[in-house]
Amino acid sequence: MAAEDTSALPGLTRLAGLVRSVQTPEFAGVTFHEIACKSALSRVPAQSGMPFEWTINPTRGCLHQCTYCFARKTHEYLDLDAGRDFDTQIIVKTNVVEVLRRELSRPSWKGEPVALGTNSDPYMRAEGRYRLMPGIIRALADSGTSFSILTKGPLLKRDLPLLQQASASVDVGIGVSLAFADARLQQQVEPGTPTPKARLDLIRAVADSGFECGVMAMPILPWLTDSDEHLDRLFSQLAAAGASGVTAGALHLRPGAREWFLQWLAREYPSLVRRYRDLYNGGSYASKDYRQWLAGKVRKFKLRHGLTGGAAQLRVSATAAARRGAVPPPAEASFEALPVHEPTLF
């Protein structure tokens, strides 16, 4: 049974829309802050270069606890830290379906494609408790809005029949995030995420349901997952599971994620800390030479395993753009350019 926590964090108590903060035995150490949001759709800044203009994030913070997550910085806008708070203080927009239906019914809504899974995973374990995604899927499909989902969560399998129904009327793209073939390393870096096997099973289920399933194999970690052996093994497993294509790229260390990831690296692989600092030179991106070197390896293994399809977000956006007579998004669009602030959060 959920227990209400009346001692919500000070920063959150100042937010309009905070309904209650709850803790439950099945999520030990986690507090869910339930919010009555004012907006469900968030516009992506044009300068981001992303292949979509709108996102929906039913939650903020993430139970996946990925040490590298670029969205960690968003928690600082809530007077929470980008480390432990991001993993354990989860904002849930409990009225998101109602608000979304209202926004999609406005005459000003032009039906641009919407992406889910950009700042938080819509199918992390909390979705089993709140069940927000079925209502979101129905609202988008009913309004004629194409959409894409990127997730690490096998819970998406629950909604595959609903997604099949939606795909009869709108374009639906599904992508799975998996960058690790080594389960031990994966659990070190992403301690709250499902195992590689669970995600390979998800890819297989998505493909068996008639969807193309693109994989986001990001981040590739220098000196940890960028070897020929690892990439060959990973791409071989993805192809065997039925993935239609792979988007892969080097670790991106944006402020907020950088500090948290480097702390983890110092604990687990201290001999690599100096090499990472030199490679990133205080910035968010690995050196240009490294990125070009990695891109060449990725191309080789994509070709070897027949994984030349694009990301789900790109596919859906390109199809929708073509229908509107618009210019399709660039093929090189990357999640590294996503905004870190969601101005219409509450």
Structural overview:
By secondary structure, the protein is an alpha/beta fold. It has helices spanning 10-13, 84-88, 96-104, 126-130, 133-142, 160-167, 183-189, 196-208, 228-241, 257-268, 273-280, 288-305, 312-324, and strands spanning 3-4, 18-23, 31-35, 41-43, 54-56, 59-60, 89-93, 114-116, 147-151, 172-177, 213-220, 245-250. The strands form 2 sheets. A 7-stranded mixed beta sheet has the order 4-5-8-9-10-11-12, with helices on both faces. A 5-stranded mixed beta sheet has the order 1-2-3-7-6. The protein is globular, with a radius of gyration of 19 Å.
Average of pLDDT: 87
Radius of gyration: 19 Å
Counting structural domains, the number is: 1
Secondary-structure element string = EHEEEEEHEHEHHEHEHHEHEHHHH
CATH class: Alpha Beta
Shape: globular
Distinct helical segment count: 13
Q: How are the strands of the biggest sheet laid out side by side?
A: 4-5-8-9-10-11-12
Q: Compute the number of strand runs.
A: 12
Main sheet, how many strands, which sense, barrel? 7 strands, mixed
Q: What is the name of the CATH topology?
A: pyruvate-formate lyase- activating enzyme
- CATH architecture group name: Alpha-Beta Horseshoe
Helix proportion of residues, in percent?
Answer: 25-40%
Low-pLDDT sequence parts: 320-346
Distance between the termini: 27 Å
Structural class: alpha/beta
Q: Could you tell me the strand content as a percent range? A: 15-25%
